[in-house]
Amino acid sequence: xxxxxxxxxxxxxxxxxxxxxxxxxxxxxxxxxxxxxxxxxxxxxxxxxxxxxxxxxxxxxxxxxxxxxxxxxxxxxxxxxxxxxxxxxxxxxxxxxxxxxxxxxxxxxxxxxxxxxxxxxxxxxxxxxxxxxxxxxxxxxxxxxxxxxxxxxxxxxxxxxxxxxxxxxxxxxxxxxxxxxxxxxxxxxxxxxxxxxxxxxxxxxxxxxxxxxxxxxxxxxxxxxxxxxxxxxxxxxxxxxxxxxxxxxxxxxxxxxxxxxxxxxxxxxxxxxxxxxxxxxxxxxxxxxxxxxxxxxxxxxxxxxxxxxxxxxxxxxxxxxxxxxxxxxxxxxxxxxxxxxxxxxxxxxxxxxxxxxxxxxxx
Length: 363
What we know:
- The protein has 1 helix and 30 strands.
- It is mostly beta strands and 363 residues long.
- Strands 1, 2, 3, 5, 6 and 8 form a 6-stranded mixed β-sheet that branches. Strands 10-11-12-14-16-18 form a 6-stranded mixed β-sheet, with no helix packed on it.
- Strand 5 and strand 6 form a beta hairpin.
- It is elongated and about 80 Å long.
């Protein structure tokens, strides 16, 4: 009889890796059973965390005690104001606090070996990476601390209060979507130490009016300034080599000076822009698809002597083009490259052009 009871108890208490359970306002998943019992937070439980909320260091379920070691959820907890992170947490998934629009303060237990906090912000333990600036912080101007080397993924995303950011010489990397949809951001003072601006880092910053890019920058990543609709002035550094897809899509500058170091301009990099003229430098070999499409104010285009191909849709719907100079290395003009360029009435193609695809110049 005793043996049967013990066996029965073992079966009742048996749990496996991957099993989930709810305690209070959090949902957990078992991530380890040996040598220690560990769980991670994966979602909300009986209600959404709100107000001043403390992440537990341990949680009990079905007669077992688990250490809480990872956070994968607090995203869009809209009523969360303050959150305290215990020493037990070893991992916080990227973007875990995105959409927490009321969050003003993140604190981390001083005994935590992976993370730290300062002035309500979340950092890596050495404080070299700023991981999260809470979306509810209401300062209009912010100076990145001098110990920061990396502004992390989505660190400032959707902050609706910041108008000005000062980035010190210590910072080398601005992560993906770091300032995405900071819709009140007007100015960024960026030091010359920055070597990387990640994908969509400043996209949807509708009020950003001007940007001086640092001389240390060689690549502008995909969508870095996409839909910065007030961006009227941009200073391109002399050593830039690559402008990736949608980098400056839907911006408002009328002119841009591309240095001779630029070798690649990605597809749709300047689509729907306010450019009135563009000179493609001799260093560029291919104009990618839709690069300047729908630039409705573009009147003058000069294509450098190293460009070999003008890709499909490259200048489609650039209605105002009246002057087009094509370099003498162009061998192919692809389909719809200049479609609907109604005001281009005279065209002289160099002898190098071997192929003009269907509808390349159709109305």
